[in-house]
Amino acid sequence: MARPVQSGGFTLIEVLVAISVMALMSLMAWRGIDGMLRTQGALQTRGNDIRALQTGLAQWQTDLDQSQELPGTPAWNWNGQVLRLTRRASGPVEAMQVVAWTWRSAPGRTGGGDWQRWQSGPITSRSDWQTAWRLAEQWGQTPDEQTRGGQVSIHAAAGWQIFVHRGGNWTNPLSSTVVNTTTTHPAPSEGSMPDGVRLILNLPPSPAGTGLLTQDWIRPTLSGSAP
Fold this sequence. Notes:
With 227 residues, this protein is an alpha+beta fold. Strand 3 and strand 4 (113-119) form a beta hairpin. The strands form two sheets. It has a five-stranded antiparallel β-sheet with strand order 1-2-3-4-5, sandwiched between helices. A four-stranded antiparallel β-sheet has the order 7-6-8-9, with helices on one face. It has two helices and nine strands; from the N terminus they run αββββαβββββ. It has helices at residues 12-65, 126-141, and strands spanning 76-78, 82-88, 96-105, 113-119, 151-156, 159-166, 169-171, 196-206, 209-218. The longest helix has 54 residues, at 12-65. The chain has one domain (43-218).
């Protein structure tokens, strides 16, 4: 009598169970990959934001370090809205440059504002400097198509403050000609660089952090005790 032939295949229930297990494993794997991609994206965004802020702070430091006082040419001017500086231009050619910094209301930015920088091209004559100095002030007040060409958005900010150190005291720049009369520091000349500058940025919630960020600058040629 012939023996019955046994089938080597899977039953329908076994196939359905295997498919269910594979689907579950695929779902778990996808969730893991998606989580890693989200984390990587968040870290990349945070890194980019921090680098942008660090680059802006480094540029601020460089502009102050390279500031230059020339006869009859102010190196510093603060009108309560825009800070203008005369500095040495970078490059092999001896030239000057006018740069400006401001905080501007920007409803589309996080925190409602933008920390911005403006710069002129290389300057080799006094007439060019006068033009650049005027354009820097115009950019800070009412920028137009011409002045926006030298503008760079540095970082979102909810506001900023500037204090200067003159005559042994930290003070508001708009009253920076007032010095401590109990010291022997000479009165600063109009448009001269202060001994120190304190920048306070109000950072909105962002990958780089939030709250008040303070950076102090001390004039490299300052002699005696630091402020």
